[in-house]
Amino acid sequence: MFLKIAHKKPECIGCMLCAEVAPEYWVMDEDGEAQLINVSREDKTFQYGEGLESDRKILKEAETGCPVNIIRVE
After folding, report:
1. Average pLDDT of span 32-53
2. Domain with 18 in it: what CATH number?
3. Does residue 42 register a pLDDT over 90?
4. In whole angstroms, what is the distance from residue 16 CA to residue 34 CA?
5. Are the CB atoms for 64 and 57 separated by under 8 Å?
6. Nearest-angstrom CA–CA distance, 30 and 69
7. H helices then E strands: how many in the chain?
8. Domain that holds residue 63
9. Which long-range contacts (CB under 8 A, 24 or more apart) does 35-40 make?
């Protein structure tokens, strides 16, 4: 089973928490913003991807630790 990840990249402040907590899912780009690694689709606001159920703990840590609340994991 996969978890759905939504990341509102344009509002990223570059704190690096998500990339440090879940480096399999986020990297920092050349603009200093977090970039979701495996993007399945995106629109003007969000990047969407999937996470493994076994990674739920780190994904939820990235979600709850994000200081600007731009990560959603379902």
Report:
1. 96
2. 3.30.70.20
3. yes
4. 7
5. no
6. 22
7. 2, 6
8. 2-73
9. 35/9, 36/5, 36/7, 36/9
pLDDT of residue 70: 98
Alpha-carbon gap, residue 65 to 62, rounded angstroms? 5
Q: What is the mean pLDDT of the chain?
A: 97
The residue type of 6 is A
55-69: per-residue pLDDT in tens?
999 999 999 999 999
Does residue 33 register a pLDDT over 90? yes
Q: Is the pLDDT of residue 1 over 90?
A: no
Cα angle, residue 25 at apex, residues 32 and 37 outer, rounded to 5°: 65
Specify whether the CB–CB gap between 34 and 12 falls below 8 A. Answer: yes
Q: How many domains does the chain have?
A: 1
Residue type, 63: E
